Prior knowledge:
InterPro entries: CheY-like_superfamily (IPR011006), NreC/VraR/RcsB-like_REC (IPR058245), Sig_transdc_resp-reg_C-effctor (IPR016032), Sig_transdc_resp-reg_receiver (IPR001789), Tscrpt_reg_LuxR_C (IPR000792), WalR-like (IPR039420), WH-like_DNA-bd_sf (IPR036388). Helices cover 54% and strands 12% of the residues.
Amino acid sequence: xxxxxxxxDQEVVRYGTTLILQKSIEDVHVSEAGSFEDTLKILASKxxxxxxxxxxxxxGNNHQMLDVIRLRHPDIKILIFSSYxxxxxxWRYLEAGADGFLSKKMGIEEIKNATKSLLxxxxxxxxxxxxxxxxxxxxxxxxxxxxxRLSNRESNIMQLLIKGLSVADIADKLSLQVSTxxxxxxxxxxxxxVTNIVEMIEKVQLYS
Length: 208
């Protein structure tokens, strides 16, 4: 009987994901957590095969959540389930220790495919992300992708900036000083060679 933990701060997402899993996987047992603190408590209560994790939630800190879960539960499978752009963040989270990355824009069948792949001890990439990686391998790129120059933290903040969040909003969301986020924003603009958010969005669209 597979034991799966669905972690998301939005109740409707947890509810919908749980229904999909219960209808598509035989004898599955699904638990839910709405915060990272609850996640750690539930994971410590019994063995789990898979955690489906939203990395943008209260009490969590993106890549650090992966590190904490991996340290305490080295054998558990982790599927990142995120609204972040998979073309920018998918490979980063796989490199950080996740077993798969699934965009919330994907349909029900892809949720089933991703979950079943990880339960079979396989990695998961969406068809679109697989194609992007294959394209990057099979053709020699003459230009350097400026997005690759960004650190994981810079990438996270950039994604929030292009979503329309202000520096103050981001500081509050990530529990950082406003001055710290301003410094990150300046550094991101320098690395991408842009001067405003509109240009940043255009640069991301060009290189994603």
